Each structure stands twice: as C-alpha cells, then as structure tokens.
Amino acid sequence: MSQRIPEQVIENVRNNVNIVDIVGQYVQLSKSGRNLFGLCPFHEEKTPSFSVTEEKQIFHCFSCHRGGNVFKFIMEIENISFPEAVLKVAELGNVEIDEKIMHDFDSSDTESSNSRKLKKVHADATQLYHHILVNTQIGEEALDYLHERGLNDDIINEFNLGYAPEKAILGAFFTERKVASEVLKKSGLFVEYDDGTLNDRFRDRVLFPIRDAQGSTIAFSGRLLHKDDKQPKYLNSPETELFNKRKILFNFDKAKSEIRQKKFAILFEGFMDVLAAYRSGIKNGIASMGTSLTNEQIYLLERTTNELFLCYDGDSAGQNAIARALELLEPVTKLKLGVIRIPEKMDPDEYVQKYGEKAFVQLIADAHETKIAFYMRYYQQNRNLANENDQLAYIADVMEKLAVVESPVEQDLYLNQLANRFALEKDSLKLQLREFVKKFKPQKQLKSAKDNSLKYLSGRHTTNSQKYSKIERAERLLIYRILHEQNTRIRMKRYTNFSFVHDDYQLIYIISEGYFNVYPEYETARFLDFLDNERARQLVVSLELDNYALESSDEEFADCIDVISNQSPLEREITELKQKLVDAKKVNNNELVTSLTIKLVTLLQQQQTNKSASL
Q1: What's the maximum distance between 2 C-alpha atoms anywhere in the chain?
Q2: Residue 465: pLDDT band with limits 50, 70, 90
C-alpha cells in the first residue's frame, strides 16, 4: 500500500488484541509451561515447534526460525503488507478503525500484485455467474436443478453458487472492465487457443466457487447441467498462482471456527454433501478437491483439530472409499480418525432430503464409529460368516487392524465383541492378537524413533547459549538488558566510544536509542515494528526467548563490557593473524611465517591468561 496508517491507530490495534486470539484462528495452540505450542503454519512438521509467548505478544518457530509480533504473523500467513496486516488484525480482533482511514485504504491503489488482480477477477466472475443463476431467465434451469437437490436460496446466496451459460460471456465482461489479457490468461477462467484468443473455460455448468482459507474465491468447480458424453461431468479450474488443489479444502474458510469449537471436522465426499450438511446446521464439514486427502490438506486439519470423521456414501462404493481413505491416512497423520455411518446406502444429501435436517443433525451426533468399529462392519461385506473359512479370514483382518491400536481398553472391548459373536475363548484371541502386535511392532518403533528425531531437530531441547561464542553471549545479554532496564541504558551513556563487535547488535543498539526517545517503556511487540531490518527483528525475538535472570547486577554489566570491549579485539587480532599466516605459507615466505607464528603464540598465551583470570 502506498499510504501509511497513523501510529496511534497501530498502537490502538496492538494494545487491544491478544496475539493468542489472532494466531489461534490459524493454529491449534496448546498450553505448555508459560507458552503455547502448535504445528507451524509456515512449514510442515509432525512435532509442534511453533511457540506463542502471550506475556511478550510474540511468536517464534524453533524449526524455521520465523518470529515476530501479531502484525508480522498476519503479514507472513496472509502474504500482505504491514498496513494491510494492521487492518486485518483489527478485523480479526474486532477493533474499530475510523471509517475515513478504512475508506482511504479501500480507495487507494492496492491492486498492484498479480494475486490481488487474480482475486479481483475471480470475485467479479463469481458475482456475474451468481447474478446469471438467480436473476436471469438463462439461469432458471440451473436454479431449478439446485432447488431440486434440496438447496434453498439462502444457501445458494451464502455460497455464491452460479451458472456459466452455454454462450461465452466472460471475455466481453472483462474487456468492458479493461482487464489486461495477461491477467485473464493467468486466471484459469479461460482456455487459450493457438492464435492467442481466449474462450470461457466453464460453459453450461453450475458453478461452485472454491475459496481459500481466508474466504477469497480462487477457483471454480463446475457441474455439467446437460449431459454431454464429450465433456467431463465435473470440471475444476486448472492450477494457477492462486489455486493449488493439494492445499485447498472446500468450505474450510467457513468451517474452521466451527471445527475448533466442536473439536472435530467431518470430511464429506462431495460439495453437495457439504452444502446439505451446512443447510442442516452441520457447519464443520469440508470436502477435498480429489479422491483422497493430500499431505498439505492433512497438515491444514492437524493445525486446526485433533479429530476427523469420514462421512461418505453408505453404498459399497462409498464404504470402499472410506477404507481406502483410512488406509492412506493412518500412517501419515496424528489425527484421531473415525467414521459417521449413513444408513440405507444413502449419501448425506439423499438422507437430508428423505428424513429432513433435524434427523441428519441427530445422525451426525449419534452415528460416530471408531476405525475398528468401521472395519468390523466393513470386513463383513461379501463374506458368509456362517462359514468357518470366512470367519477365520474375517477375524484375521480385524486382528490386523486391532494390533496397531495403542489403547489396551479399546483392544479389550473389541476382543470381547469377537469372543461373544463367534463363541470363542477370549484368551485364544489375545494370543492371536499378540502375534499380530509382534508383526507390527517394528513399524511402531520406527515411527517413535522418527518422532524423537523430529523433536531433536526442532531445537526445543537444546540450550540457545550453546550456539554462540563467549563474545556474542555477552552481546546478547547486554542488549537484552539495554532493552529491558532503564538503569542499564543510563550506564551505557558513560561509554561514549563503546560499540558491539557484531553489526546486528550494534544496529539494534542504535535503533533502541531512537525508540526510547519516542517511547518511555519497552514493549517487545512495539519495538519489533520499530525495526526495519528483518534480521534484527529475528534476533530480538530470539533474545526474548532466552532465559535470562530477571534483574542484572553490577558484576554482570562489568563482565559484559569487559568481554566485548577488551577480549573481542584480541580475538579479532588472532583471527586476522591466522589468515596472514595461511597467506604467507601459500607464497612460501618462510621468514614471514616464522615472525607471524611467534606473534600468534604470544597472543594465544595472552588469550589463555585472560580466560584463566575470568574463571
């Protein structure tokens, strides 16, 4: 954005939001000690290394090392500028901003990036297609189709469903609005012919807008209204700068808050099932963009909830799809998986139409199955359980799934069911289960070892001070005291010729002087906004995560000054001398090598003496 937001507005937003509340809308956080932890939204991981410190209003990832205050978090996750982040944080935190300021930014030229232009194109296309569906004669048949499928006007309007007519209209629509052809080519809304001309990608299709996690339309999925053997029944937008189907879950933007509240998500097979559930009041439903969840989609859910239920069609094809999905999901996710069973071989949409919305809500509440309960029912398909061979095969299949269940109580529950059903001794089943457990034990140990390595790599179990030299440790401690203690800042004024060894700490020191000329007290989140240098920001975040004593002492201050001012020049001189020695050896200057070696030995002895004196 070309304009600046007034400083008092930034202060007002920062002071009236809690970073935990804002980050919590993107990441599932759990309390651990003084901080909150979750899976990092900026990279994939299995062990949480993303931390939020409520006391200091900062976040930090111990793996990818991103960190900052609430504005920085929104800038990173939304890929927006600082002024936009301030407005977004205000929106998420329900902080009122003067209408004039909002208007000034709304009317400024903010459509400079490709992604903004593409989002604007999709927003305009959504409104056009929706208008055609609900307000024109051309869209009447498509509207009737949606009504017949049980969707009322409220749902159609809320989800901005649309209709793309047989006749191409989108090109003329954007030409009239003077949208550049290069933008249209990148949008995915058109098919480009060899001669460079563009034609509407979606023709004679009911359109479902596909939105990102923030609610912006980034693609479409179109269902053919009239059967055509030459055309696919469903057609999705191609992948673009905005749209990567591996990362998108249909309705996640609307469902995420409900998922966090209900503490579980429901995965449906299709968009119509999600809409039927939503109409019934089940608003934590989502659907994938393909036949199974991708790693990116799984990770999105893992950051939001701990539990996922699959609610697919009740027919054989739907049950087979559930089994395949569980097989794929179990090895790659920590989500607790379950199934919601739809009776009478119906899909959710059919169930709602036949029995009504209240009945469907009750079904969702009552029909939860564990994975094992699903498999015990699923493995009965196409088997005659009065036949001994089929009985043995069935029991073996169930045992294989039961062997990887970690809860002894859950194992015992299903062993009892098997023993009662087939009139077997429970001890015999336990023996057989032990054999299956042995078979799968190496895999469980491997997974555990992998988890442990992830914890180690996250850095959460190492001491920060181990990464720094003695001089840098002194610099870090001193700059921390300068930021946090007025007494230290007053003391530093006596050292007019003092400078830090490393430029990054010197930069923070200089900027801090400017900061305290404006603000009487130090606030981490506010100081981070005062810094323009990203590396300096991350250093300050890392300082705030170190465990320093609450108060400094005269001795501590003197030691820091001594190490930085007196010991660091000696170390620099030793480093420079070593390099000169290497250079002299390269040119075979033996006389210089001898001279430099004598000097180096002297300096090393002096360094050792200093170290002994400091012990």
Answers
A1: 99
A2: very low
DSSP codes joined into one string, 152-182: -HHHHHHTT-EEE-SS--HHHHHHHTT--HH
Rg over alpha carbons for the chain, rounded to the nearest Å, is: 32
Distance CA 290, CA 309 (A): 17
Distance CA 548, CA 562 (A): 19
pLDDT band at 111 (very low <50, low <70, confident <90, very high): very low
CB atoms inside a 10 Å sphere around CB 349:
25
Beta carbons within 8 Å of 144's beta carbon, 6+ residues apart:
none
What pLDDT, on the 0 to 100 scale, is given for residue 572?
Answer: 67
Q: At what angle do helices 82-92 and 99-107 cross, to 10 degrees?
A: 130
Give per-residue pLDDT as tens, 525-535: 999 999 988 99
Of the CA atoms within 13 Å of residue 6, those in its CB half-sphere come to: 9
Going by the DSSP 8-state scheme, the letter that residue 550 receives in this structure is S
Beta strands 234-236; 217-224: pairing state = antiparallel
Paired sense of beta strands 67-68 and 162-164, if any: unpaired
CA distance 485 to 479: 10
DSSP letter for 564, please: I
Residues with Cβ < 8 Å from 403, sequence gap 6 or more?
Answer: 433, 436, 437, 439, 440
pTM of the model: 0.71
Question: Beta-carbon neighbour count of residue 488 at 10 Å?
Answer: 18
Share of the chain above pLDDT 70, in %: 91
* Structure confidence at residue 454 as a pLDDT band (50, 70, 90): very low
